[in-house]
Amino acid sequence: MLTVSPIYEGDRKKRARSYYVQGQEVLKVRDFAKIGPILDASVEDGVSDFRSLTYSLADEEAAKKKAVAEAMQRAIGRAAIALEQKGQKLGALRYMSLDVKQVYGVARLETFATTTETVDVSGAFRERKVAPPMPPPQPQKITVSASVQCAFQIQ
């Protein structure tokens, strides 16, 4: 998706002097190690300003199910231990409240200024703008957590 915005710069006739083009790309990459070469190729193709990189889990539902199962297991275990101290046993589940949260990963990318390089082309010097290579983004952990509140019958 591209957004094109005209830049007027004081023109009395309201004619655009130039245009600012901004775009957003969505790529699905399964191996995070391949992000560096993809970003390098983008810079070579003329993309010169990256703001951020957002990533998520390939199978979010499986991670959520695992978080819920672990939270429920902890709730049952803690309730059983608490009741055991009084010589009572855990009965049937009477009520449960569940909250699942997921924190998405966002890697901030530094914006690099474009440098100028002078190139000799058949006896004439010509300037060419070159963007320095970007450092590879480092993935952070994505957190999926579940909070369970339970009410059990006591035996």
Low-confidence stretches: 110-116
Structural class: alpha+beta
Largest sheet: 2 strands, antiparallel
- What quaternary form is this? single chain
The whole-angstrom Rg is 28 Å
What's the order of the H and E elements?
EEHEHEEEEE
Q: What's the layout of helices and strands?
A:
Blueprint: E1 2-7, E2 18-23, H1 35-44, E3 52-55, H2 60-84, E4 90-103, E5 105-108, E6 115-121, E7 124-130, E8 143-154
Antiparallel strand pairs: 1-2, 3-5, 4-8, 6-7
Any overview of this molecule?
The chain has two helices and eight strands; from the N terminus they run E-E-H-E-H-E-E-E-E-E. It has 155 residues and is α+β, with helices and mostly antiparallel strands. The chain has one domain. Strand 6 and strand 7 (124-130) form a beta hairpin. The termini are far apart.
What's a concise summary of this model?
The protein has 155 residues and is of the alpha+beta class.
Give descriptors for this structure.
two-stranded antiparallel ribbon, single chain, alpha+beta, 2 helices, 155 residues, 23% helix
